[in-house]
Amino acid sequence: MVRAIIKFALRIATLFLFRVKVVGQENIEKDKPFILCPNHISNWDPPTMVASLKRNDVYVLAKEEMFVNGFIKWLAVKVHAIPVKRGKQDVALLKTSLKVLKENHLILMFPEGTRHGMEKKGKIQNGAVLISLMSGVPIIPIGIQAKYIPFTKVKINIGKPMDISEYQDRKNEKEVLEKLSKALMEEIIRLTNQEI
Asked: Is the pLDDT of residue 174 over 80?
């Protein structure tokens, strides 16, 4: 109930602040698990994504620093945020993610690892690909086109699922993880630059 109220409030806030246009919503089928991977522009990305998707079962991977402040921590828990220890191997995160996907929910995570990761020439994170290979759940690349200036347009371009299950037996090979993560990021970039 609380989650539904928060999502409604987020939707009102984002619709008031931004003119949100979503393309490709049909690519996120009902009652199926997916790993959603957008580019990361702003702290507005997660709430705008959660508010704009038709499905209500989105679990968001968020940096653990968000879980320090009392109110922000409460809010994060209510919207199903999962804390991430950046730059470290996180077995608990992996187990939680696999459990969420097994229950046919959605996970929202950012392969760049930080805001404007592509622009900063940062290393692409392999987490989304690893979780996909371990769970057998497809990744859906997403391109967010926005400046997040009040009353401007935000465009969310949802791509088709990427099924990489043929590489499941090679999930422990670093070269394979990096190759697939690069392919994912290239598709995210394509969607981000596509006119919609």
From this structure: yes
The architecture of the domain spanning 2-193 is: 3-Layer(aba) Sandwich (3.40)
Domain ranges of the chain: 2-193
CB < 8 Å & 24+ apart, contacts of 159-168: 159/24, 159/27, 159/187, 159/188, 159/191, 160/24, 160/27, 161/27, 161/34, 162/132, 162/138, 162/187, 163/138, 164/129, 164/132, 164/133, 164/138, 164/139, 165/133, 165/136, 165/138, 167/133, 168/133, 168/136
User: pTM for this one?
Assistant: 0.89
